[in-house]
Amino acid sequence: MTVDIAQPTRRRIEAIDALRGFALLGMFIFHATWDLGFFRLIPAEFPFSPGFTAFGHVIAVTFLGLSGASLVLAHPDRRPNAAYWKRLGMLVAASAAITVATLWLFPESFIFFGILHCIALGSLIALPYLRGPGFIAILAGGLVIALPLLVASPIFNPIALQWVGLGTQLPTTNDWRPVFPWLGFVLLGLGMAQVVREQGISLPGAGWQAHSVPARWLLWGGRHSLLVYLVHQPVFFAVVWTIAQIVNPLPAATPVTAEPFVGACVAQCTARGGEAELCRNVCTCISQEIRRKPPIWQRLVQDSLSPADRVEIEGFTQQCLKGLQP
Q1: Closest CA to 105 of 32, 38, 164
Q2: Are residues 226 and 251 in contact, defined by beta-carbon separation less than 8 angstroms?
Q3: Percent of the chain whose predicted confidence (pLDDT) is above 70
Q4: Where do the domains of the chain lie?
């Protein structure tokens, strides 16, 4: 069955809610794994592995793209209505609540511009694109995604400008979805939905309807994604914390001194195809940068790095790579 969304309609498309529900399930897995690593019930480095990090990016892209498409579906007349401003107000309030809560719980790595902040700002910036053809939004989205690969400046490194995403250092935060490149996925979702409507394209599966109980729960989550997002992580965190009080966490690794750290770093670098001399120089640079932050070095020695520490070390890595690569 297909549904033609070329004609304006305010009926909810259950397939869109289902996709959002699947994204929520992915987010549950991501945050539960992060919590397990934080309390060392699984290897602490696993949530920061490249594959799992990519999994988190896929979830974020899904949410951002759907938020852009939903703007088109919710505004067939291409103008913001009362429901839009209500939703935007809820997003802004929720974003502020997350910032305040994480500032209290994780003052060194609080969330100042995470995915909700990006969706809220993206919903506002995307408004003018509702009035234009879809290909304009797609082109703009592609430019926003590509720009950080072409432009980077230390001017954007201060925390007051880190939300832009064009700096040369990664900030210390537990969730960071800056305007560049992440806003681009909102515009891509909006533009693709506009093209579907403009061209009268009928999407296979768009007329899908939930009949089973699990599917209806999935739809309920997709329709109330903001509420689920705000509630689930405190619940997960409390549950995993409780388990950690009963089950002994994994033991800490052998303390790390400077030379073993550099040696392990060089081994990992060369295994990935890096030249031995460049790897040694980069790893020595990283070690020196970490040692300039005694608290981080001490936690590294004790194998008790926080998520914020790991983000900062990744920033040192990129900084050293840029400074030493020809």
Answers
A1: 38
A2: no
A3: 88
A4: 2-244, 258-324
